[in-house]
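INFO  loader      accepted 1 record
INFO  loader      residues=538
INFO  predictor   begin
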Amino acid sequence: MTLYERFARSAARHPHATALRVEGCSVTYRELETLAAVLARRVLDAHGGRPGAVGLLASRGVLAYAGYLAILRLGAAVVPIGPAFPAARVLALCDGAGVGPVLLDREGEARRAAIEAGGRAVVGPEALEAPGSSAASGPSASSGSSAFSGSSRGGRPGGAAGPYPASPDDIAYVLFTSGSTGVPKGVPIPHRNLDAYLEWNIAWYEAGPGCRFSQTFALTFDPSVFDMFVAWGSGAALVVPGEGDLLAPADYVDREGITHWFSVPSIVSMARRLDALPPGSMPSLRWSLFAGEPLTFEQARAWADAAPNSVVENLYGPTELTVTCTRHRLPADRERWAVTENGTVPIGRVHDHLEAVLLDEDGRPASEGELCVRGVQRFPGYLDPQCDDGRFVAFDGVRGTVREGAGPPAGDHWYRTGDRVAALDGGVLVHLGRIDDQVKVRGYRMEPGEIEAVLRRHPGVLDAVVVAVPDDDGEVDLLAAYTGGPVPRGELAALAREALPAYMVPSDFVGVGELPVNLNGKTDRKALAALLAARGRG
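INFO  predictor   done
INFO  writer      dumping tokens
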């Protein structure tokens, strides 16, 4: 079943139930379906046919969610793009994903001129404000299933805007992860990958009419897919927090009657610093889920105190494995909580419909090593086949062999997560860090190399290295060290802001005489991080 079919089934069963609450408004399933039909027609007309992929340049408002469904209604792939992304990055992502038209809201209007200059049609917020806007005249047959591509797939611009069928192998959405070469990597996720995942989660979390799901994630972050389609696939409501609500999550949860919470753990730390997470303050919560970065036991205890009726689970999964692929439930009895050396909650066990193995540096199974996963949630390979090089492994049960070279991986290949994981007694997994230099900051996964590539564009910079350094509150800051210069800090910050999303801009830029190296002559990132951390404390 495709994502849109899941929504449409709930709309048919629960037309008058609340599907979306955002910006102070409640939207029923029937109303949201109507809005999606209106926007689908506008996209169809603007493009002159059915597009293969549509950019969604919108923040978390009515248009963003109706637009997401409108794109799926056309049988096209959704390509979420941050409205605050620099114009150059917006265009690069559109090119990389083969985007045809772009749907944008008022926040995305700042990028309209650049998008149109690139030859792409734009459907703006006026699409829902035009006189005579109404639902499409009804479903119509399509000539066939929709293969993912950047070209038009026919259709009738003046006719009904779907719903058009999509096959399980068609791409539902494309997200971009940070690339070490300075170019983001496009991750396409087919509908097939989401089918078993959503069925399993809807049942596991007892989702259904009357449930109210939080939506703390940006649409460019794949846990948002969990929130939307576990809710909409079960007849539940998606409740989007307003500006400032995440600073006081207990108030938001209590006011909106949230039953299912999902966020990055850093929200817990932020709320605690603001004294906004008092014990017993979230009695309505039944489920509390965390993912995107390590969850500490201290954070888990604070949240459990505030939500005494809630089950707390820690989830894990890279974008390439479709949102999450492991989970660990914390027992109600805290005496039974596991003890880990790094103080983080285990990531748990891999979902039953997936397979996992830990491989050591020699490619042999081990109790501690790189987590490799295969199964129905594994993506088919990056949009750019060159990015597949070295990311998959063939494992014969005795030893794994890294697959070198470009080209799509075979169905039985395992995806190398790049995460170092250990197995506790009973097979419960604990995340120990990254095998490579990739880092996560506030839930966003990124390659420091992408940031470094941008900084090296400055004529005064000879070399640059970006590291993640914990601050006094346990959060992570990105710091950049560079040789050459001296270069005014403002120039480097401006250069980064022009090319990168805000969460990838380092908080400080430090000129150094030379970068520390290890015995192999490679840059010693750990030593550099310690040096920069000591400098900050000095």
